[in-house]
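User: Structure tokens for this complex, please. No commentary.
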Amino acid sequence: MFRIPTRHGKFGRVSNWVFLLIICLVAFSLSGCRDKPDAASEGAEADTGKTVLTAWAHHGKSVEWETLQKQVARFNASQKAFRIELIEIPEADYNTQVQSAAATRELPGILEFDGPMLANYVWKGYLQPLDSLISAEVRSSLLPSIEAQGTYQGRLYAVGVFDSGLALYGNLAQLTAAGIRIPHGIKDAWSVSEFDEILARLSKQGRQNGGHGYALDIKRDYTGEWWTYAFYPALVSGGAQLIDTTDYQSADGVLNSKAAVRTLQYFQRWMKAGYIAPNTDGRAFIDGRVALSWAGHWEYPRYSKALGEKLRLIPLPDFGGGTRTAMGSWCWGITRNCKDSGAAAKFLDFLMSGAEVLAMTEANGAVPGTRTAAEKAQLYRPGGPLRLFVEQLDTCAVPRARTPAYPVITSVFQEAMGDILNGAPVKKTLDRAVRIIDENIEQNEGYPPSGGGK
Amino acid sequence: MKLPRGDTVWGWIMASPAVIGLLLFMVLPFVVAIGLSFTTYRFNSPLPLRWEGLGNYIDLLTSSDFLRAVLNNIMFAAVVVPVQTGLALMLALLVNQRLRGMSVFRTLFFMPVIYPMALVAVVWALIFAPAPTGLMNRIVALFSFGHVQAPIDFLRNGYLAMPCIMVMSIWQGVGFQMVILLAALQGVPETLYEAARIDGAGRVARFRHVTMPQLRNSLIFVAMVTTILAFRLFDQIWILTRGGPNNATTTVLYQAFVASRERNQIGLGAAMAVLFFIFVGVVTLVQHFGVRQHREIQ
Amino acid sequence: MSKSIQNRHLLLSYGLLILVALVFVWPLVFMLAASVTPNEQVLARASGLGALLSRDWTWSNYKSVLGQLEFFSFLRNSIFIVGVIVLSGLVVNSMAGYALSRLRWSGREAVLAVVIALMVIPYEALAVPLFFEMTVVGWINSYQVQIVPFIANAFSIYLFYTFFNSIPRELDEAARMDRASPLQTFFHVAAPLARPAFASVAILSFLMNWGVFLWPLMVTRGPGYQPLPVALGYFSANKPVRWGDIMAFGTLMVIPVLMVFLIFQKGFVKGIARTGIKG
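Assistant:
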């Protein structure tokens, strides 16, 4: 029929290959389809008759994940009537997965999530209160910070196995060389004017020693939540807040108050003066380019390995109202989707038991979430190298704004922090942030109590 | 010439799988998105959905952030489209030579297109690192003989951030355009070159009178795609500057991302997408049909 | 042309090629080197050029990546999803491109305009409505939800359209005179001529879909159907960032892309020149 036989033949061969490939791909997929667990399914298991409860947890640090897997296995072995099915969710995009699953009503019965999201999740009706579910024993042993993080409008919605700690890490050798007073604890934290002077002195010393004159590392290489987590405590210490915490209806006069402007101007000045290291390679402190690092508990293993005896944990500077620090980490809640809340609560009780809290925090190095565990943990017991974190969480840690507007507040504040460090006028930047936050609250009708919603 | 009858039937038959796919998975959702842009829609919000009318659009057109984003997009496209298309053509010509090892070079030039984002991010953050050891700072120090006060914080400097993004974008995207132009170059029938050679045409003349006319369609395609991609600028911004400093690198899609993903303002984000669509759509259709008519007149 | 001029030209060409290649390839070198550098050292050594390639290289990053997640299950999902999109996309979109370029049909102009307009729609705008569409269809947490919506692609159609416009009409018109149907003409005459276009569309659509991760996050629940880019999230949020792991993962993720590129780029070379039209 065609007079172009060569091309005909050639195409015939190509299309055969393509056809074969498609067949292979289809066969390959069908073979893989059968053993896929349905992540959202909850209910009775046919063969064992056990009730299956699904739990979502973040998979970040591998030791953390492995420990959790072992914990779940231990729990399942001890239970006759039900079984926990653990689903791993990548840490980096956790909230997206939760929000999407909620939209199709496929949230698991047990949900781990990042603390500051709590109010938002409660407002959207994802979670149920734990007050009558978890044991009184667990409840009374919680660190005050864990209790504060888990509470929204007077009810407890989540419990955390561990908490986080934020402070300054100091290089003792460099600090003493510059003749700087080292605070012993929360009470005698550096005042901000003292801190200002210290930075100037360290910078000068660094320059004299042939360095670039950096004195402080504030993790400029991080992006995202860090910028709220690490710097709203300074705001609070300086007498401001992210939002008016009496009714959470406006940030005006709070986030853009004189106190807030004054506090953040310090950071801008330190930036301009060249005290703050770029820290592009994440090693400014380890390599001795700075004497101070504004960082979280997760830096301890790395820092102590590099500095050994020369490492000191120092409270954050006092911006006027006493030193303040951050708190909050991953925590566990029970969703309204849960088929058997009692069983789910048993699992939470199990995770919060002394031995399990220790097992987890020894693996990931975080602050134990119960008082009993904190007294026993190597790093955190009285006299332990990180004891300051426990003391801080007991006395001067402040929760991030507990409002459903938090995702917006943090996104706006992160941007504002970036701009301020880059030299933008502080008051104007904060005014803009306030405008966006207030607009958002207004658009959401003030986030009225929803009673569970959908 | 005369065409056989039944083209309409065949046209629809052959186009229908694609057309149905586009209708179901692009047109339909986009129509829904247009609908959402008139509302206060928020993902999973317990509040009742409210009709906003043109509210979102009015908010946008009076928002200095959004207008700055539009301006940045236009600036970016005005620089990147001609530069990148020109470079892509040069590269395509370079690797279209009949030389040993050319497939290796072709692959290497294409590499940036396939790098994972995390890699590109860290590599360019290091290049632009505001430390004296940063690559770009070293280069600046070398060529200015120490006159420029190092280190410069390129990505956090209001004047330099956008040019840095442009450099990175061209670097990452040029391989993509090169591949398309290369396919077109390979498609130029050898007979045309032979005929030109017989007519005594030199290298330059052959390029002007054979290559360029043959590449015309592909060049138009490349310029069009580059324009669209330039307006879609987002990834580099997200990775390197997050729209900063002080909105110097914010773009329409960055704003849309922040609105819909970080602030859960799906309605507002949809309104941005619709405005974006209208604006870039008009530019693209004018480019396409304008250029084509020009050819028909010729 | 004299020998020396030819040599000089050759030298110049290679010099230029190598220079450009260096600019484009050094991130790859960086990635490969970093993937065998201890996590701690990656960024520290990156600023001192060349220091990366030191003696204490290690496979531990690869071990940690492969041990931490079921890499091959993610890889299998990715290959299947992207493979089906690319292959069926080639068929569907090339037919449409051909119809738009060669056939005169009522509705052609309209379809063309729609295709061009659709190239412009930012995908992000469609995510939420498409998500609800998929919920209604009941495809959440499956392969098809990640495949079917992405087969028809306006960019690919337009690229085929452009390419068919630029190849001579005489051959397929001859076939049409022989009373071959447009479909037959397309499969037997036009498509073989368009091999370079098939190759570039295959590469580009492979790339476009290989890195996608926002959509799978929305429509999958747990790792069963998730593709590779989602897996990066398992360790990219770690603090301090484990750059060695990320680079090892990046290397593993780039290898399939590189293979696809190498396979399909032969399509360019073997393009039109060798299909019999020459001479």
